[in-house]
Amino acid sequence: MKSLQISKYLRARTRGQTLAIVGLLLATGVLVGLVAIAFDGASALLQRRVMQNGSEAGALAGINLMGQNLLVTCVPAPCHSTFNLRNSDVYTQVNTLAQGNRGGAVGATASNYTVTVGYHYTPDAPQCPGGPSGPGCWRATANDNNLVPAYVDGVIVTTTIRNPTTFAKALPPAIVGSQLTGINVTAVAAAKLNPTCAPQYPQGQTMPFTRFRPSIEYQMMNATNDPLNPFHLWSPNSDLQNDSNYKNVVSLAQASFMGSNQLLTDWDHRFHGTVGPLTDSLTQYNPNANYPGNGVCATNPAACGDCRSNPGSCGDMAGRANFDVTDIGNWLFWQWKGTVSLTTTTWLSSTMSWYPATAATNYGRCTPVPGCGVNPPTDAVNGRPGDWAETYNIGNIGNNIGAPMRDLVSNFGKPGALTGPPWNLGLAITSTVYLWGENFTDPANYNDRGRSAQWQHTVSCGISCTQQIWEDLPITGNLTNNQGLRKPNGSNEISRVHFTRAIQMVFYENTVNQGGNSEVNGFVLSPYQPGPTPDPGGGTCSSWAVGGGSYGRQVPPP
To answer: Which of 218, 312, 420, 530 is a Cys-bridge partner for 479, taking CB atoms 3.0 to 4.6 Å apart?
Structure first.
């Protein structure tokens, strides 16, 4: 009985001590502090995880946008990045993704949340004190309408929120210094652009003009290509010194000038004698027409020409007739929608496109004639992959390029980074230009060994027999100091060219032909690929180059 009374006494005393301890903890804030750590601390950790996703999404979105608007210029040397993009465009893209992943902290509003953006500059940038041998540097940037600076190759995103507390704000100010209404949570992520080889097929409409690949690639190394200094892409002056008739204009018609079809993967099938829906039945381009401008044709093609009631006025996008220069305006203004291949087509030897196409090989057909040898060429060894286009060698056709180019951008273009003040370059459109010819390794001693172009002429095939043939036309010369490239005989006109590369261009309506109707100016884009995409050229594409590719990927923040 006595022991039972002692036990009851002890339990009662213990309950009293527990109440005293709890009261002491409440008085000193320790218990509230423990609960605050458990609840508000966990809330902050969860919020940081969500915000880290937002920062990473923002950094990748920013670098993707920068990659899609990347230009590279080699003036001043070395080649470096420049952008057809404003700082505010980058910030808007980053902020949209970061805000969408800011989390759902109770009581948090947009005013609690901040997003800051900074850039990484390459070691060659004047902003970096380490110089070309340094690692580059990170610098803050403003959310303004200035262009993204040159030499930038990365973006860093910092997101911060004042995460509201639930229990911590009950802690006595005497303990924490002031009322703890929130906990600052920060997340940081970064991403960078890297040079790589350009993809074979950049997106965009195909232009009916071209350039000789070694000439323009050498020009890219020595000419400006930045938002304030457009790249001079085209003029009717030949890239060869002894071929003034060739205007750098090609036919995109279905039919060859020699009959049958051209060596193009596919042509534009719109209209071609049959009236169809509005999008297939468009009035032939007229350089003197009063088109509405302001990008209207992109959304309302009928405002720019509807030929369904008068088929004779339709623009035949497959081409009307040999050397009909009106086709050029149609292909430009109505945006040719055929297909050009650089790698996936190898034509039959009967097309005389196999290499070498000379008299010794019966112009690539290599039926048993002297010089063919005992082992005739094969498709795998001698077929030249990729499409060919025949050329215009007539008169002064410069005005057939400049006018429709301006009308194209004015009526189908969309606003770009340089559209409004202070540049006011008007609307912009992105297009693809195919280049012909072999690249160069030694600019002072270029020799394509007859792989780039052919001339069409008539040869004898026996008594009272002649035939039209395609024959390789070797091109050699010196790209430096304006010494020029030449054919072996100036009277042998280039009749068709072999496409080997494509570049992507952005054209603005107020600069596309600012030097007159006989030239085309624009900005050479560097095609972007979301990464990681390491250099597929084994290191040959590891430096910035005009028209070269780029890829973006996330990197550890500094």
So the answer is: 218
Going by the DSSP 8-state scheme, the letter that residue 339 receives in this structure is B
Task: Let me know if residue 355 belongs to a domain.
Answer: no
How many domains is the chain built from? 2
Q: Which two tokens stand for residue 1?
A: 């009985």
Backbone angles phi, psi at 40, to 5 degrees: -70, -35
Q: Residue 44: pLDDT above 70?
A: no
Statement to judge: residues 241 and 190 lie in one domain: no
Fill in the amino acid letter for 462.
G
Same domain, 192 and 209: no
Say whether both 444 and 506 belong to one domain.
yes
Q: Do 187 and 250 sit in the same domain of this protein?
A: no
- Print the domain residue range for 470: 205-345+385-525
Cis peptide before 536 (omega within 30 of 0): no
Q: Do 490 and 512 sit in the same domain of this protein?
A: yes
Calculate the CA dihedral of residues 453, 456, 462, 464 and round it to 10 degrees.
Answer: 180
> In 279-336, which residue ranges form alpha helices assigned H by DSSP?
296-299, 326-333
Residues 6+ apart with CB under 8 A from 515: 232, 521
The CA–CA distances, whole Å, from 332 to 180, 421, 508 equal 66, 28, 15
The more confidently predicted of residues 397 and 511 is 511
If asked whether residues 85 and 219 sit together in one domain, one would say no
Lowest mean pLDDT of 51-65, 109-123, 221-235, 288-302, name the range: 109-123
Buried b (16+ CB within 10 A) or exposed e, 446-473: bebebbbbbbbeeeeeeeeeeeebbbbb
Listed in sequence order, the residues at least 6 apart from 502 whose beta carbon sits closer than 8 Å to its beta carbon are 200, 201, 202, 340, 342, 432, 433, 434, 435
- The per-residue DSSP string of 427-495 comes to -EEEEEEEEES---S-TTSEE-TT-SEEEEEEEEEETTEEEEEEEE---EEE-GGG-EEE-S-TTS---
Q: Burial code of 507-529, b = ≥16 C-beta within 10 A, e = fewer?
A: bbbbbbbeeebbbbbbbbbbbbe
Alpha carbon separation from 364 to 255, 350, 448, 453, 461 (Å, rounded): 21, 8, 17, 14, 15
Model confidence band, residue 307 (pLDDT cutoffs 50, 70, 90): very high
Domain boundary among 145, 170, 196: 196
Answer yes or no: is pLDDT of 294 > 90.
yes
Reading across the β-sheet that carries 182-196, which strands appear in turn? Answer: 137-140, 113-121, 152-164, 182-196, 549-555, 528-530
Nearest to 548 by CA among 523, 522, 521, 524: 524
Q: What is the reported pLDDT for 533?
A: 57
Judgement on whether residues 157 and 299 belong to the same structural domain of the protein: no
Q: What is the pLDDT of residues 140-194, one digit of tens each?
A: 999 999 999 999 999 999 988 876 655 455 555 555 555 456 667 788 999 999 9
Half-sphere exposure in the Cβ direction for 448 (13 Å, CA): 28
Q: Is residue 370 part of a domain?
A: no
Question: What letter does residue 504 receive in the DSSP assignment?
Answer: E
- Three-class SS string for 426-444? CCEEEEEEEEECCCCCCCC
Q: Which two tokens stand for residue 537?
A: 């050229």
Helices (H) and strands (E) in the chain, counts: 9, 20
